[in-house]
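## Example pair
The file below holds two records. Each record gives the amino-acid sequence first, followed by its structure token line.
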Amino acid sequence: MTASRDFELDHGLVRRRFSARAATARETDFLAREVASRMAERLDYIRLQPGRILDLGCGHGADLPMLSQRYPAAECIGLDFALPLLDLARSERSLLQRMLGRSRGPKLVCADAGQLPLARASVQLVWSNLLLNWLTDPLPAIRECQRVLEVGGLLMFATLGPDTLKELRNALPRQAGERVHRFIDMHDLGDALLEAGFADPVMDMQTLTLTYPDLDTLVRDLRNAASTNAARNRPAGLSGKAGWRSARAALGQTQIEGRLPVSIELVFGHAWKAAPKVSEDGRAIIQFQPRHPA
């Protein structure tokens, strides 16, 4: 899987935006909280007792209490590339320690998802809530997840699919540049899991519909959540007042009972790290089973 040549996210801008919103992260985190709940429901059907868990793209650490409570014997690591969000998570860590009666809370690491500072085969569960949609090409991060997982370890993630914000995308003037940044299709993510060496990938999709009183409220929510367009070839603004008028008119035709519907396509996936079929130097691995006497 490779990124489209005509689309690239500005990862430096993404980092700066999330860093700037750290102070209000709790108040603008409602979508990730809903997604975490749905991911946890899927985890209910999986038998796993990890000794070490990586929360990849942990943000301000909101998922760490749930993971720590579900797996009390496990060591939890929260990793994110926005240091101010990790500082917020660190301030909440002492409360989590008291809640769980532990002397030590989750470890917090500032790093990039494509270069994880963890040893090979050192983790049994990688959990990632709405991180992959902020990567131009998620394959390097998925490969890193495969590297740090033990054989038999699980990658569980949720991301956003291509129908996310489709109403806004269709309403904005069609000019050069990306008005709403693209999201990767569920089937392409499944292919990326297989390409990275994962086995038995399971993918499913749900559509969540939010409603807003008007376009201005929608855009304000996106800005407050650091979730506005991050494409490198994004145009500046909405082409002035004419662009806003055009977008409002187009969105007005989609109203339901006086409110604007906004689609969020949620893509859920999980896959297991299988035993390698070839060694690191490319030689085939053949397993011999002992013969039992007749």
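Second record, same layout:
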Amino acid sequence: MKYTSELKPKAIKDLKSIPLKERERIVGRIERIEDNLEGDVKKLTNHPPEYRMRSGNYRVLFEIEEGKIVVYRVLHRKEAYL
């Protein structure tokens, strides 16, 4: 299934604070999961948002709503699950 992606304002702010090389890698991985929800994607339990994707030391926290990947946060792994 082909998804579209939407970044919430906090996710955009998070991305701006990440070094350029890491940011480019994260955006590329988000674009790849639009086509195929595989890779290092895991459904979370007892933690909103519903899914996480690993990209190096960063975690992309997102939900899937009506064929759309909604990215809520992009955080360093130390901060992602607090």
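Notes on the second record: The chain has one domain: 4-76. The two ends are 32 Å apart (CA to CA).
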